[in-house]
Specification:
GO molecular function, one term: DNA binding
CATH architecture of the domain at 64-198: Orthogonal Bundle
CATH class of the domain at 64-198: Mainly Alpha
Largest sheet: none
Oligomer: single chain
CATH superfamily of the domain at 64-198: Tetracycline Repressor, domain 2
DNA-binding region: 42-61
Region (Disordered): 1-21
Shape: elongated
Order of helices and strands: HHHHHHHHH
Distance between the termini: 58 Å
Number of strands: 0
Protein name: TetR family transcriptional regulator
Strand content: under 5%
Keywords: DNA-binding
Radius of gyration: 19 Å
Number of helices: 9
CATH topology of the domain at 64-198: Tetracycline Repressor, domain 2
Helix content: over 70%
Length: 200
């Protein structure tokens, strides 16, 4: 296989032992990605981080793009787990839950996940799944933060609003945006959510 990520070996499938090994390798690569970001990510760097060879990684993954995508998904899952833990420890209002989630979103995984969104915009043909996957991963969590008595349609609408707004804040923050302006915008979002919830 070359550095473009074209697989030259058969990917492992099926066995419980093979899947356990795959998850172990993925966790190591994900830790490296969280610490060092996407710049210069390659199959050889991933192999060093995993303590194995690039041939072993190619046995378990369909090339460098598949490995990168799986690691990004794993980082998002970590972020979602943190968000759920934070939101579960606050009063039972949507705005309070969103306020609790925000520090998790700007935590240590933020830099890498923002870079992943940048890849999606830079090369949508190659990395479109990273962008689509983000919405698919985050929206169910945001729907779950909404009041349980809302209709499914209303929950979906508000979740889309929150996702798009928070993503905008994150991109603005990552590109050197004004922190005071982001704080003011976030406060405006939570006031809007309070009004939405008060509307019944």
């Amino acid at each position: 296989m070359d550095e473009d990520g074209r697989p030259a070996y058969r990917r492992s499938t099926g066995s419980r032992r093979g899947e356990a090994r795959r998850q172990e390798l993925l966790a190591r690569v994900t830790d490296d990605l969280a610490a060092n970001g996407l710049v210069d990510f390659s199959l050889r760097r991933a192999a060093r981080a995993a303590g194995t060879t690039h041939k072993v990684l190619l046995y378990h993954f369909d090339g460098v793009d598949d490995l990168l995508t799986q690691a990004i998904l794993a980082l998002r899952d970590r972020r979602i787990d943190g968000a759920l833990a934070a939101s579960g420890a606050v009063p039972d209002t949507l705005s309070a839950r969103v306020r609790a989630v925000w520090p998790v979103l700007v935590g240590e995984e933020s830099r890498v996940l923002d870079q992943a969104i940048g890849l999606t915009m830079y090369d949508p043909e190659r990395y479109a799944e990273l962008g689509r996957g983000a919405s698919q991963q985050y929206l169910p969590t945001l729907v779950g933060l909404c009041p349980p008595d809302w209709s499914d349609a209303r929950k979906a609408e508000v979740a889309q609003l929150v996702l798009a707004t928070l993503r905008g804040f994150l991109i603005h923050r990552a590109t050197g945006g004004d922190p005071a302006g982001i704080d003011a915008g976030f406060a405006a979002l939570t006031r809007a959510l309070d009004r939405e919830e008060a509307a019944g």
